[in-house]
Write a structure and sequence with these properties.
Keywords: Membrane, Transmembrane, Transmembrane helix. The chain is built from 5 helices and no strands. By secondary structure, it is mostly helical. The model has no long low-confidence stretch (mean pLDDT about 90).
Length: about 110
């Protein structure tokens, strides 16, 4: 699978699961929409990434790393407090983003 396909799939997963998590959570917080925003950015950046823009690859790698950190912190606080976004949603988004991050790192190493 090519890196831009993985990035597109990750963006779609983040949007769908993020909206599902936002709709199913009992707490009315807009922070549940952060993965949706990241997913939208990932989907928007597919055409320049596919064309080989190195700046886009660097930005996607940085954003994926930041998203993984944010999802890990959210997962930790959700497990600790037993509230917020359900754990299943966070784990799916975390796995998807981690796989995309590994593909992005491998892509950057191949280009160097």
């Amino acid at each position: 699978m090519k890196t831009h396909h993985v990035n597109l799939l990750n963006g779609i997963i983040l949007i769908v699961i993020g909206l599902w998590a936002y709709a199913s959570t009992t707490a009315e917080t807009s922070t549940a929409l952060i993965p949706v925003a990241f997913g939208g950015l990932f989907v928007i950046t597919v055409p320049p990434f596919r064309s080989g823009n190195p700046l886009t690859a660097n930005i996607l790698t940085l954003l994926s790393g930041l998203l993984i950190i944010a999802l890990l912190l959210s997962l930790w606080s959700t497990i600790r407090d037993r509230s917020g976004i359900p754990v299943f949603h966070l784990i799916v988004m975390l796995i998807s983003s981690s796989v995309a991050f590994v593909f992005l790192i491998r892509h950057r190493r191949q280009k160097v």
